[in-house]
Specification:
The protein is α+β, with helices and mostly antiparallel strands and 376 residues long. The chain folds into two domains: 256 residues, Helix Hairpins; 105 residues, Sandwich (HSP40/DNAj peptide-binding domain), CATH 2.60.260. Helix content is 25%, strand content 26%. The protein contains eight helices and 15 strands. The strands form six sheets. Strands 10-11-15-14 form a four-stranded mixed beta sheet. A three-stranded mixed beta sheet has the order 1-9-8. Strands 2-7 form a two-stranded antiparallel ribbon. Strand 10 and strand 11 form a beta hairpin. Helix 2 packs antiparallel against helix 3. The longest helix is centred in the C-terminal third of the chain and has 27 residues. The radius of gyration is 33 Å and the shape is elongated.
């Protein structure tokens, strides 16, 4: 585990960062290294995986606590820190449990019964999915295809050939641990370590299943149907409970987390649940006022602008934005108008504008003269 970077460093955080800081940092880094945005960059793909791994640990309160105390060893199932809070087998010294035994069992005291043959939750998985703007706003149904480990049907996940079963390890008696006693000037000290015959499971598989080679699981492409709720946004995360990899020793399956990437819209821009649109208007509409037709997500709205509306003016249509994914509240639709200037004019049109300019320019000239007079 020495080659692993610190998870806080991966997300650009200080140790002990709050949950909202962790989530915000994850979204930022996941967006930066997302494979869809870096299709030809293998390095970005590896960093994306590293970011996912860091978030999977730091977003889980129990795993985060163990990582903060013991580093990578605290969340590595092979190091003995995982599952039921046990510490057995960590490092070459026999782990913290052995230190405890050195004192409580120094003169022939009792032994610990902790081992790794209890139920363990399966590994969580994560997959990115790209959807359209409309699918994010209105919700949709999707099919997810993912390659993952599933329970072996031949042995039903036991790892043993059908009709047979695993046997209790004769070396550790099913405890998953073996102990040795050493004499010291301070008395007898007992050292407890993981059983090398059963790997700490307490059981030996003498007739492994031929399909899964005794692991109890096989790798397979799986298709999963899911609902995407209305109102999700870019980087939203949808958990699919129990759709991760199978648990160990009867433990529950892990979860699958879908990270959404939403394609931009050709007209609307989105911020939270609010929508923004730039709407062109004619010179006549701006000068004389008019009732505008404003395109919305599902219908067209009417909005009256007053005479003399200037380019860059903004107005709001309340409740015409996106439905919140967490409530029945709707965001707003913000409209910014800009005056379209004609680029091709015939002689009649030019003359009409020139005639109008004579009337309008006198007022504008007076305003400019008064403004310049302020600086004399």
């Amino acid at each position: 585990m020495s080659d692993k970077r610190d998870y806080y460093e991966v997300l650009g955080l200080q140790k002990g960062a709050a949950d909202d800081e962790i989530k915000k940092a994850f979204r930022k880094m996941a967006m930066k290294y997302h494979p869809d945005k870096n299709p030809n960059d293998k390095g970005a793909e590896e960093q994306f995986k590293e970011v996912n791994e860091a978030y999977a640990i730091l977003s889980d309160a129990d795993k985060k606590s163990k990582y903060d105390r013991f580093g990578h060893a605290g969340v590595d199932p092979n190091a003995g820190f995982g599952g039921a809070g046990g510490f057995g087998g960590a490092g070459g010294f026999g782990g913290f449990e052995d230190i405890f035994d050195m004192f409580t069992g120094a003169f022939g005291g009792g032994s610990s019964s902790r081992h790794r043959n209890g139920p363990q939750k399966g590994r969580d998985l994560q997959k990115a999915m790209t959807i359209t703007f409309e699918e994010a706003v209105f919700g949709c149904k999707k099919e997810v295809e993912i390659v993952k480990y599933v329970k072996c049907k031949t042995c039903n996940g036991s790892g043993a050939t059908p009709g047979t079963s695993k046997k209790t390890c004769d070396k550790c008696g099913g405890s998953g641990q073996v102990s040795s006693v050493s004499n010291t000037p301070f008395g007898q000290f007992r050292n407890v370590s993981e059983c090398d015959k059963c790997g700490g499971s307490g059981q030996v598989n003498e007739t492994p299943c031929t399909d899964c080679k005794g692991t109890g699981k096989i790798r397979k492409t799986v298709k999963i149907n899911m609902d995407i709720p209305a109102g999700v946004n870019n980087d939203s995360i949808i958990p699919l409970r129990g759709q991760g990899e199978p648990g160990v020793n009867g433990g529950p399956a892990g979860d699958l987390y879908i990270v959404l990437n939403v394609k931009p819209h050709a007209v609307f821009k989105r911020s939270g649940d609010d929508l923004y649109i730039d709407l062109p208007i004619t010179f006549e509409q701006a000068a004389l006022g008019a009732t505008l037709k404003v395109p919305g997500l599902t219908e067209t709205y009417s909005y009256k602008i007053s005479a003399g509306t200037q380019t860059g003016s903004n107005f709001r249509l309340k409740g015409k934005g996106v439905k919140s994914v967490r409530s029945n509240r709707y965001g707003d639709l913000y409209v910014k108008v800009f005056v379209e200037i004609p680029t091709k004019l015939n002689s009649k049109q030019k003359k009409a504008i020139q005639e109008m300019a004579k009337e309008v320019n006198e007022e504008s000239y007076t305003k400019r003269k008064n403004l310049l007079g302020m600086f004399k």
